[in-house]
Amino acid sequence: MSPAGLYIHIPFCKSKCPYCDFYSIASTTLISRFIESLEMEMALYKKSFPLFDTLYIGGGTPSLLDTGVIARIIESVRAAFKITEGAEITIEANPGDMILEKVREIKSTGINRVNLGVQSFNDNDLEFLGRRNNAAQAEQAFYNLQDAGFNNTGIDLIYGLRDQSIKEWIKNLEKAAFLGPEHISCYQLTIEGKTVFSAMKNKGELHELSEESSSEFFLLTSAILEKKGYLHYEVSNFAKGLEHRSRHNMKYWKRTPYLGLGPSAHSFDGKKRWWSHSSVKRYCTCLEEGFLPIEDFECLTPEQETLEKISLGLRSSGGIKTDDIKNIPGAMECAARLEYTGYLKITDDSIVPTKKGLLVADRLPLILMGDA
User: Fold this and answer.
1) Whether pLDDT at 186 is above 70
2) Domains in the chain: how many in total?
């Protein structure tokens, strides 16, 4: 079995962004209690997964933690679990936290990859998104990472913002490509759950991109970044070569086992998926009482596993194997029609999405499974 991935959710932010639907609280008062509970959770899972080759510290805003706390987390992980030599160790960071001294301290903990939540290099966009940094700070944060010796960095960007033109989005892409991070993620703004943006949408104050505009932004993004030397390897993700793809996130797309620690974190052992309570206090109380903070779990049926494998596979440039659909009645015929219309490319043993296919990746598996 391939080594698993380890995810740690840091559920703290200085403030909540109006678009973010990930679980976090805008308070830091429970950090000490959380860290102690996190170490208890590690101890309970100590013998559950034999080996990890990626660690991803996400959130929330992990970079708001003191570097001593970050170092403690890394040390606790290494004490509780077997981590391969050369493991990819990533932390998500807010540009406003990444002053040079802190960046150097983060590097000394053993973290070797930083994903910078830039979102935009336009100050008006950043204000709209409720970010606590400006564009100049985002650029400086990237240079600080370079100065500290990081050679595996990522930048996140968001398009489809209110009043954002194609011209302004192109400026963002060109700025990101000029800086030259090893990885760029470009996400379309989606209005989720119980967020401020959701309330604005319900009042008619905010709208998502039309299908036509979404297609224009997506295809333009792909064309520009590929021209700049980036590989478009997943719907929203671009890398400077295969070696700079997110090894951790690829585990999700390939259905490789992963363990999630912290409130709201999800885990998968190859058959069963489970997730923790989305509450810091409840999470801590469970562990203080000696049991895992699992909220619920699910075991997929064979049909659900097949649909998931197809759904995740068709989000990436690697696609799926023809064997994955050969036993689904009519699926190969559907695939042939999708190839004819420019959505898929079929070889002897694989089926991969074209750019046009990546644009509608969520729909392709339903068509192949006969549910569209």
Assistant:
1) yes
2) 2
